[in-house]
Amino acid sequence: MPLRNWILLIVLGAIWGGSFLFAKVAVSEIPPFMLVFFRVAIACAVLLTLLWHRGMLARLEKRHALSFLTLGLLNNAIPFSLLFLGQTVIGAGLASILNATTPVFTVVVAGLLARQETLSAHRIAGVALGVCGVAVMLSSSLSGLATDPAWAQLCCLGAAISYACAATFSRRFKTLPPLVTAAGQLSGSTLLMLPVALVTAGSWSVTDPGLTAWANVIALGIVATALAYLIYFRLLAEGGATNASLVTLIVPASALFFGWLILGENLAPLQFTGFAILLAGLVVLDGRILGRRGTTPA
Q1: Higher-pLDDT residue of 187, 134
Q2: Checking phi first, is residue 233 left (phi over 0); if not, alpha (psi -120 to 50) or beta?
Q3: Could you tell me if 278 and 133 are in contact, meaning their C-beta atoms sit under 8 angstroms apart?
Q4: 137: which residues sit within 8 A by CB, 6+ positions away?
Q5: How far is residue 72's CA from residue 110's CA, in Å, rounded to a whole number?
Q6: How far is it, in rounded angstroms, from Cα 19 to Cα 13?
Q7: How many whole angstroms separate alpha carbon 169 and alpha carbon 248?
Q8: pLDDT tens readout for residues 223-278
Q9: How many domains does the chain have?
Q10: What range defines the domain where residue 256 resides?
């Protein structure tokens, strides 16, 4: 990938890493499915307003309606719901490790099943190193693999698989502006989540959460969803499914950083080791340094 895309990838990883802090506060006061609905609905409203302001609403053509619904299902409704459900009983660390398997599933779906991308040794090795780095960084959470409920762990793995399928499916939108694709996707997921949220809300009321919880919901919607998906779809169009999915390797590292910076959490030497392994994996994935070494005269 060009350097610009690596910068966008790191920025996106930082945004989604921070979203764990937003979600941790909000999900304690808002039911998971209702939280998913608010997250996508707020983001949808922001992007539709932006489309209207730019005179681009007509780009949301009816012929794309089913595809936008499918993308909203695969990239928002299913993974957001599964991750929030899983995090009701397992920690964010283990959820991050399981979610970091997304590039592995993307390699399988985009490379082997859909044959959209060419599999190379450095790409496979880089993904493997990256996942190992995340596992080392969050190794204290690995004990949850043996003690936390299997259904919750499967929820997080299911979210990773859904993200991989979405990244592969999204390639059909590469000719559309990222703003149109993001708005279409979020319109689809908002329509899908509204009945689910209403049916599962029970006696919950919008007056129940405090101002802090609502502030985190708004941050989830505007920053971690509307802005984030504009960046994501640009990466996807320019870098491909596997490269875009690498953000799930960066998310845990940025989540740890924000935990240290904002919450005062301590960082152990093992976490720095894991971060170094992750960086090595990204360097291998990039391939440019290895390419230079391969072309250096003996």
Answers
A1: 187
A2: alpha
A3: yes
A4: 252, 253, 256, 270, 271, 273, 274, 275, 278
A5: 18
A6: 10
A7: 18
A8: 999 999 999 998 888 888 777 878 888 887 887 777 777 767 676 787 788 778 87
A9: 1
A10: 3-295
